[in-house]
Automatic annotation (TrEMBL):
<feature type="modified residue" description="N6-(pyridoxal phosphate)lysine">
    <location>
        <position position="65"/>
    </location>
</feature>
<protein>
    <recommendedName>
        <fullName>Diaminopimelate decarboxylase</fullName>
        <ecNumber>4.1.1.20</ecNumber>
    </recommendedName>
</protein>
<dbReference type="InterPro" id="IPR022657">
    <property type="entry name" value="De-COase2_CS"/>
</dbReference>
<dbReference type="InterPro" id="IPR002986">
    <property type="entry name" value="DAP_deCOOHase_LysA"/>
</dbReference>
<dbReference type="InterPro" id="IPR022644">
    <property type="entry name" value="De-COase2_N"/>
</dbReference>
<feature type="binding site">
    <location>
        <position position="361"/>
    </location>
    <ligand>
        <name>substrate</name>
    </ligand>
</feature>
<comment type="subunit">
    <text>Homodimer.</text>
</comment>
<keyword id="KW-0457">Lysine biosynthesis</keyword>
<feature type="domain" description="Orn/DAP/Arg decarboxylase 2 N-terminal">
    <location>
        <begin position="38"/>
        <end position="294"/>
    </location>
</feature>
<feature type="binding site">
    <location>
        <position position="247"/>
    </location>
    <ligand>
        <name>pyridoxal 5'-phosphate</name>
    </ligand>
</feature>
<keyword id="KW-0210">Decarboxylase</keyword>
<dbReference type="Pfam" id="PF02784">
    <property type="entry name" value="Orn_Arg_deC_N"/>
</dbReference>
<feature type="binding site">
    <location>
        <begin position="289"/>
        <end position="292"/>
    </location>
    <ligand>
        <name>pyridoxal 5'-phosphate</name>
    </ligand>
</feature>
<dbReference type="GO" id="GO:0008836">
    <property type="term" value="F:diaminopimelate decarboxylase activity"/>
</dbReference>
<dbReference type="InterPro" id="IPR000183">
    <property type="entry name" value="Orn/DAP/Arg_de-COase"/>
</dbReference>
<dbReference type="InterPro" id="IPR029066">
    <property type="entry name" value="PLP-binding_barrel"/>
</dbReference>
<dbReference type="GO" id="GO:0009089">
    <property type="term" value="P:lysine biosynthetic process via diaminopimelate"/>
</dbReference>
Amino acid sequence: MQLNGNMATDDNMLTIGGIRADKLIAAYGSPLYVIDQADFEDRAQAFKQYFVSEKFKTHVIYASKAFSNVYISELAKAAGLHIDVVSGGELYTVLKAGYDPSQVYFHGNNKTPHELAYALDQGIGTIIVDNDYEYQLISDLAKERKMLARVLLRVNPGIEADTHKYIQTTKEDSKFGMSTTDPRTMAFIQAMAQDPAIDFAGVHCHIGSQVMKAGFFYEEAQAMIAFAKQVESQCQIDLQEVNLGGGFGVYYTDKDQPLNLAEFLPAYIKEIEQAMVANDFSCDIISIEPGRSMINDSGSTLYTLGAIKHPQMGLPFAFIDGGMSDNLRPALYQAEYEAAIANRINEPADQAFRVAGKCCETGDILIQEIKLANPQPGDILVVPRTGAYTFAMASNYNRIEKPAVVFVKDGQSKVAVKRETYADMTRNDCSIKD
Ligand SMILES: *Cc1c(COP(=O)(O)O)cnc(C)c1O
């Protein structure tokens, strides 16, 4: 397992942010989501530092769906990031964290009238429109409120990034946004631009997730800027913003060669600047929306091992006290992870195991095959790089309580989300006797 961020070892024990894994489990229970706070803060600053231009302002927007709670929203705010949300619940969370509503972008392919009204009433900065029906809702709600709603339109430039098909989003038949090649798109923009309740600010696109090749982002930037120019000339309007979305790939296993931000982001800026010159286009703001690449590396999950089971055939199982309830990704789309025995971190990992969860699903296998150092019941298994789309997708399947989230930094730890209790899980249950 590759150590990352502020991981180290102390006498054969893994430490994160200066705290031993066994101390974290003893203090907060198991399983446990652990977030390396300094690692997140460093990455937020790297995005801010490297995604800059002298030609336009840049917004680095944290896609909070990757890992949403009040604590991380407070950190994102302190780091000077904008933030995006995809539901009323995520919006509520960032507002509760004290986000200035003008810094919030609201996404989603089917925002409800209730969510849109909530967003407008809270003075949300920008709504990304997905379709004509949604635009009508926003326009009517804004008129009722005598407000001007700032919107971007989500479009698909038809770039097929080579990622898993569930996380690929801009093919021509994608459920998200409108195609740049659809003749109705330009007429739709024209209508929005002429609507007195709408401040049509620009276009948005997000080409998918876990994209490793910089070339796809360059292609996207060129296509989007060419399209933005076309919008300006055909609709006789000035666009303020082009939002290029997120999707920057990260390391999970040695199959992944992630983008190096210090190299990629300045190169990306250069591509954008060149595309602007080539298309004779300019605008005030260019935005990006990193989610996974902002938080994934900072998160680890600690589990306690139960039985080590040797079936008649196949690999032996190492059973963990969690599974698809705290990390759905392997069951959902065959995501892969590394792992190690945290309390024997320096010992050679030389025997192959299958790491299985405790949920009642055959598909609840966290890792299909991984070499571990002589795992025993009671050992701590660390699965690194679980910051994104794990806690965010957690469920109470089998009525398993969601683990606590603890932030660690410089030898200090702080609970960001308390562990659920059995009582929490039945809080909204009503009795036949009620
Ligand atoms: C999910 C999403 C993101 C973030 O994607 P990552 O792969 O986590 O970087 C950004 N923008 C939009 C519109 C999204 O839906």
